[in-house]
Amino acid sequence: MSNPFDRPSGPSGPDGPQRPGGPGGPGGQRPVATASRRPGALVITSIVLVVGFMLLSGFASFWTERLWFGSVGYREVFTTLLLTRIGLFLVFAGLMAATVAITMAMAYRFRPVLWPGMPGMPDDGMDRYRELLAPRMGWVIGGAAAVLGLFAGASATGQWRTYSLWRHSQSFGTEDPYFNKDVGFYVFELPFWHYLVDYVMALAVVGLMATILMNYLFGGIRLSARPGERLTSAAQIQVSALLAMFVIAKALDYWLDRFDLVTNSGSIFTGMGYTDEKAVLPAKEILAGIAIVCALLFLANIWRRTWLLPSVGVALFALSAIILGLIVPTVVQAIRVNPNVPDREGPYIKANIDATRAAYQLDQIDVRNVGGTAVADDGRLEALDGMTAKIPLVDPQIVSEIFEQQQQVRAYYSVPNVLDVDRYEVDGTDRAVVIGVRELDQSGLAENDQNWSNLHTAYTHGNGVIAAFANQRPEDDSSQEIGIQWAEGAEVDQDTLSRLGGPDGYETRVYFGEQSPSYSIVGLDPDGGPVEFDLPRGDRSEEDVATTYTGEAGVPIGNLFNQLLYAVRFSEPNLLLSSRVHENSKILYDRNPRQMVEKVAPWLTVDSDPYPAVVDGRIQWILDGYTVTDKYPLSQRESLETMTDDALQDNNGFQTLPTDEINYLRNSVKATVDAYDGTVSLYEWQDDPILDAWQEVFPDVVQPKDAIPEALMEHLRYPEDLFKAQRYQFQRYHETSASAWFEGSSRWEVPSDPQLTSRLQPPYRLFTDTGNGEEWSLTSVYVPRDKENNLAAYMAVNSDATSADYGKVSVLELPNEPTGGPLQIANTFSTNEDVSQALLPYTTGDADRVPGNLLTVPIGEDFIYVQPVYTRREGESNFPILRFVLVSYEGRVGIDETLRGAIEDALTASPSDGSEETQEEPTEEPTEEPTEEPAEQPTETPGENPTPGGDATVGELLQQAEAKFAEADEAQQAGDTVRWAQLMEEGRELVDQAVSLLE
């Protein structure tokens, strides 16, 4: 048989095939045959290359991911994830493909013997499609089944979390009050049952569409036929069976929807409400029964060739769904609930309160009333000085600039914009320190130096930590000093943390951090020396010091295969061509500590604030991992991002649920990432059923709690995001009465940050005493709703992991009397005349006032407010300097260069009401020189005036300043950045003193 697409054969001369215009066409020349095929060959080649590159790129991404997991010792996690996803894909893709193939094959197999278009049958215009498909029906059925199976399988792979929890379901030991089901049923089992039911409905719908299409194409369904003859018997059986399958699945869906009533969010609260129990719940049960009846009618239609009964059943089902599912609940809500919400919803609100307090552990919070009793008059100053000695005056956000200027020894190092706060035991005393890692900042390199070799093989890591004592007291904790007191810095004598790290200090190289490069190539060249730049301690020379990474983490890329894969992954040919990549090379990537923990434990929600600590001679990044769910029955659901938002919170990017909403939260895991070698360690911290389920899925990934090293335990702390979530919920759920909760008259709020009123005030870490002795705590305050000027309560949680009371949250509730809140105190500080006079020289010209954290600290039964005030001159190289400390106590305001002095000033001042009497009070204490003339004395540089007592003239001060600037220039030329910064600041202080004498 000839192929209709073959060219005619025959002579090539005049008797052969001709084209218009003579042999070969209008030009009379025969075209070359290959010319007409060349475009097709190019297209095919292009397609092959594109598909090949896509496959290579996909394989490179997959294989390099596998190599990364192996490099950090968690390949079993990758394997488990891969096998689970493959299993889900095969099962659900296979079911969908089988359903499509069977329905299409049956429709084709039982097609009518005579179909439209045959002799004696009316033509329906489908003949050309039948002729095209009939000889290739096997390929058509297989192709359709494969494509739909791929879609179903890809969707199923995203359900690996739901499936894993369903398979390893645990018991919470708590039942809901409506269905008497264990909480584990809602958290572990119900979500996957929902998915299975939805999947069955999808199978029925897709199978029904395939059946209808095939029967219509081959005459099993004829729309133009008489009623009763439009479907053949075979088509009717298939359609009826698939419709029955769908309706049965819908009945199961209604039955499962009953349980969702305890986890759905209503207009007022999450959980079962009056309308839900009295109208929606019965409606779903009735609709489930009607759906079963409809399914039976469809099945009966297999034997009875009539659609009357199924049609009546479907109509009844639709009408019932409208009446029972929409109209009845709306009427009940409008008539029974809305006129009397507190009484109708009261029992349900109470159930919501109890569940929410249990889910967020609010029921364990200790609430105590305080009466505002002040410290006794005898020895008040000494008592208050002792009680406030550990108050942090170093603001972690503001001093980041100081860290940069005074401790940034090279331009390609930097610290975070907001530093962390930790505690260390120094000489037997717990000291709070503000700490930051000196990380690599490649943007600080000169533009000409930002080439591939430098960015990825030379500048590979950060170096050490920078730390300052938070209370601005030296290592001996004797008394507050004027300048920053370094606990760890670039100078040789700034080594407190180094000495705590051991006789050899600590490993300073930081290859894994929050600002690490996208990837780095490390490893010692066998034919050369080290090429990675390093910063030895105390080195001020410009000579380059080289080092080589020798840690365990990192993927070897000494072979061509791995080099090719990573060249594709990072789109970088230098990985194949550069001599810096050799047989000993490793590649480090995905180095952010939070990202690393999220990858090795993808079922965890990781706290947004990893923090560094020097532990046993190593820098460890410490992270908190949460197990969360949005299926805890009756507990209030809220966005985690909303609950944790405050003035310091950037985009946290929580990896939680698709909606970011949760109603259960546990700090079940503590994690560490070694900053040098990338070792990731996970430790069980809190017993939790969700954690137990995941430990069965990923055995041996989480170590037991008793495996936590003792040195690490001292640096574990109560996580901020958990505290902020509890703080958010407790502002409403401190009230346990349903009626009071609904009225909202006693509702609290977290106050706005005084320095950024559009955002909430963040919590602060400090040593506090809420009645149980001094504790390392995380603290916050509440104000009454819509009354931010008053203080309603003080909240603190024991953050000392070595304490038996770790995690105990205490709330000090104030009486219903006017008590100044943070915003009111901030306003008092800004309007106080003594404060204004003292700050006047720093708020004019090129000077700028920079208020620090406004801290609220309990003092016995009363509270004291403390705020450091920094000042900064204009200029890129100028950084904030702590000038004054403001104190508000018993309605009095004090200001001084030290906290003790500010407290003494407050004790001798008159109550702050904006009057001018406050100007006279400081004169009663002649020993406090700075308070006698607040407009002039505070402008002198404390402790640094070269002529104490202010005896130098303006000219002498300017001459001394000029000498300081000259010395600074010499230090800058010598490369001593820290010395330059100190001399520049001393010179500016002398200029300020001269200016103040002229005023």
Outline:
This protein is α+β, with helices and mostly antiparallel strands.
Describe this structure in words.
- The chain has 999 residues and is of the alpha+beta class.
- The chain has 28 helices and 33 strands.
- The strands form ten sheets. Strands 1, 22, 25, 26, 27 and 28 form a six-stranded mixed sheet that branches. Strands 15, 16, 17, 20 and 21 form a five-stranded antiparallel sheet that branches. Strands 29, 30, 31, 32 and 33 form a five-stranded antiparallel sheet that branches.
- Helix 5 crosses helix 6 and helix 11 (380-387) packs antiparallel against helix 25.
- The longest helix is centred in the first third of the chain and has 39 residues, at 33-71.
- It is globular.
- The N and C termini lie far apart (112 Å).
Present the secondary structure layout.
Layout: H1 33-71, H2 75-109, H3 127-133, H4 137-157, H5 160-167, H6 183-217, H7 233-260, H8 274-300, H9 308-337, H10 341-359, E1 366-369, H11 380-387, H12 400-407, E2 413-414, E3 420-426, E4 429-437, E5 439-440, H13 452-458, E6 462-463, E7 465-469, E8 486-488, H14 496-500, E9 509-510, E10 519-522, E11 532-534, E12 545-547, E13 555-556, H15 560-569, H16 574-577, E14 586-589, H17 593-600, E15 605-606, E16 611-615, E17 618-629, E18 638-639, H18 640-643, E19 661-662, E20 664-674, E21 680-684, H19 689-697, H20 710-713, H21 720-733, H22 738-743, E22 748-749, E23 752-753, E24 756-760, E25 764-769, E26 774-784, E27 793-798, E28 809-813, H23 822-831, H24 833-839, E29 847-851, E30 855-859, E31 862-873, E32 881-889, E33 892-896, H25 899-908, H26 929-932, H27 954-973, H28 977-998
Parallel strand pairs: 1-28
Antiparallel strand pairs: 2-5, 3-4, 4-7, 6-9, 7-8, 10-14, 11-12, 13-14, 15-17, 16-17, 17-20, 18-19, 20-21, 22-26, 23-24, 25-26, 26-27, 27-28, 29-31, 30-31, 31-32, 32-33
Helix pairs in contact: 1-2, 1-15, 2-4, 2-6, 5-6, 6-7, 7-8, 8-9, 11-25, 27-28
